[in-house]
Each structure stands twice: as structure tokens, then as C-alpha cells.
Write a structure and sequence with these properties.
With 333 residues, the protein is an alpha/beta fold. It has 12 helices and 10 strands. Strands 1, 2, 3, 4, 5, 6, 7, 8, 9 and 10 form a 10-stranded mixed beta sheet that branches.
Length: 333
């Protein structure tokens, strides 16, 4: 009979135990999820006025986030617009928002509270600056607004920011050259229809439902904002005006207020914004859902169809959030 020394038996026992541990490890690898736990918690998304594109976009995005991030509760909070949104996110009152690139640049330039914490997640769609008048109005250019009652959005809105700059580019002092009326897109259409305004500015995606509804019940037209205005904006304004570019609204952007040809105007990009405080995994999932939901949201908010993975990464003037960067790296071809 062959006998084994205690040392050999001990080695075999250890080898068997090691093999068992390997098998157990493989079973655990197969059965248990690896990597970071799924994001969970609650976030606030600051949108815009109730009848604006930001709010409708937020409502539709929340539906997709419920599927993409099921353990994350999303609360929407209306606002006056981009400057208001940025203040909320930068100071911790909200977690995510949408804001125009010119408003972001202005916030950074003025070093407002929390400016250094702001981060970009995605470049979304462009806003188009729209100047709306009654169809029979004698106003055919920005210069014709002299002395007129002009709706310029709410005080802390992106509309007010761009409206004042457009007026200045046309050599009109917003304080003395026109009679500014501070009201949101929920109020300005009705004021125009009732004759309480001669014109109003709006900056939003196409079409904006409030303008569409106005055109359904009242004859209106869009005033061209031609190329020279953009050049004047770039030449006379602060560095933030470089985010404005010449664009054209399709002649049928508002079918009940058609134009004989495309209407020249000014466009500025919208950015999805958060701060460096936001969890990387949650931000990655939020960004992924924004890109993946483009087609579904785009069926109701037409401007969302322009969200594009190839351009979403360009969030100038904000650096990308680490979580958003991880998402773009994961889908890089």
C-alpha cells in the first residue's frame, strides 16, 4: 500500500480548496451583477415657462428617464428661462437644466454664484430668435420697432437677453428706444392679439406651440432678422455674442403664418447643463437617455429631432461632465 506523507495530503487539500474557490468565484461572477450599482435617488430638472419648448421637452424626457433610470425620481420645475435655470443649478436648487450657450457664457463671464461648478452634458437643438407681429403691422424690420411696445420675455429669461442685444445691434436702446414689456411666452401672444403689444420676441425651438396656437386664431407674420444683424452682434457685443449665428426658419415653420420664402433669423444652441457635484453614473445615464430618446421626443417636439450624437459632445463654453464623457467614450466607434 502506498502511503502519502502529511505534507502531500495537506497540499492536495489546499489545491482542492483553491479549485473550489475558483468555481465559487465563477458562479458569483455569473449570478451577481458587477460594476457600479444602478443610479438611484431624486433629481430636479429646471425647465422653462409652462407653454414653452423647454417644459414640453422636460415632460417627455421624464417619461424616458423613468424607463432608462427606473430608480431615479425626476421632478420638473418651471422657470423664467435660461438665466434663471443656470442660477438654480449652479446654486444647488436644481440638478439638471437646459440653457442657451449665450446665457451660459454670460453667466461664466459675470462669474455669478457657482459659475465654476457648471458642466455640460450635451449640445441639444438650436433656438431660433423669432420676432412676431400682426400680419397687417407696419413693422418689417427691427429698426421699425422704435417707440413700439415690444414683448421681451421675463426679466430672468434668455429671450430678454437676446432681445436686448438684437435691439442694440439695430441701434435701439432697449430702455429708451422701445417700450419694453416683460412677459413670458404664456402671456405675450394674447397681448399681441388684444392690441396690448406691437411685437414680441421669442427664442425657442421650431415650432413653438404658443406661437403656433396664436397663428391658428390670429393673423401674424415673422419679421426677418437678416445677416447684417448677426455681424453687428459679433462686432458690438461682448464675447458671448459669438454664440449667435445666421440661420433661416423654414417658410412653413408655422403653417397658419406661411412666408413666401424662408425667414432669415438668428440661432443659438441649447445645452444640457449640470454641475460637478452630480454623480457620474447618474449623469452618464441621463445623457444616454437624452440621446436615445431623440426620435420619440422629436415626434412631438420637432426641434428635438436635431439632437445628434456627433455634435452633442460640443458643449462649449462648458467642459464636459465626467459622466457625460464616459457615455461618449462608450459609444465611440
Amino acid at each position: 500500500m502506498v502511503t502519502h506523507s502529511p505534507g502531500i495530503r495537506r497540499n492536495r487539500v489546499l489545491q482542492g480548496a483553491a479549485a473550489a474557490l475558483v468555481v465559487l468565484g465563477l458562479l458569483l461572477w455569473w449570478l451577481l451583477p458587477l460594476g457600479e450599482p444602478a443610479p438611484r435617488g431624486a433629481v430636479t430638472f429646471s425647465t422653462g415657462v409652462k407653454s414653452g419648448v423647454y417644459q414640453r421637452y422636460g415632460e417627455l424626457l421624464r417619461q424616458d428617464l423613468a424607463r432608462g433610470l427606473p430608480d431615479v425620481s425626476v421632478t420638473l420645475r418651471t422657470s423664467q428661462g435660461s438665466p434663471d435655470n443656470l442660477t438654480r443649478v449652479a446654486t444647488g436648487e436644481a440638478d439638471f437644466t437646459i440653457a442657451t450657450a449665450d446665457a451660459v457664457s454670460n453667466y461664466l463671464m459675470e462669474k455669478k454664484p457657482g459659475w465654476q461648478r457648471l458642466r455640460g452634458c450635451a449640445r441639444l437643438y438650436d433656438d431660433y430668435v423669432q420676432l412676431i407681429v400682426a400680419k397687417d403691422s407696419k413693422i418689417h424690420s427691427v429698426a421699425d420697432l422704435r417707440g413700439a411696445r415690444v414683448g421681451v420675455g421675463q426679466p430672468e429669461s434668455g429671450v430678454r437677453l437676446v432681445a436686448d442685444r438684437v435691439l442694440e445691434a439695430a441701434d435701439l436702446d432697449p430702455r429708451t428706444g422701445v417700450r419694453e414689456v416683460f412677459a413670458g411666452i404664456d402671456k405675450m401672444p394674447g397681448k399681441l392679439q388684444r392690441g396690448e403689444l406691437d411685437a414680441f420676441f421669442w427664442s425657442g425651438g421650431l415650432p413653438t406651440s404658443a406661437v403656433e396656437a396664436l397663428a391658428d386664431r390670429f393673423a401674424v407674420r415673422l419679421v426677418p432678422l437678416d445677416g447684417p444683424l448677426v455681424k453687428q452682434l459679433h462686432a458690438a457685443g461682448p464675447a458671448t455674442t459669438r454664440y449667435y449665428r445666421s440661420a433661416a426658419m423654414p417658410a412653413d415653420a408655422y403653417p397658419k403664418a406661411p412666408s413666401a420664402q424662408d425667414v432669415p433669423t438668428i440661432a443659438v444652441a441649447n445645452l444640457l447643463v449640470t454641475t460637478d457635484r452630480m454623480d457620474a453614473a447618474l449623469t452618464e445615464g441621463f445623457t444616454r437617455t437624452v440621446i436615445d430618446s431623440r426620435d420619440r421626443i422629436g415626434r412631438e417636439v420637432h426641434s428635438a429631432q436635431l439632437v445628434d450624437l456627433r455634435t452633442a459632445i460640443y458643449t462649449d463654453p462648458l467642459p464636459l461632465h465626467e459622466g457625460a464623457k464616459r457615455y461618449y467614450q462608450s459609444v465611440k466607434p
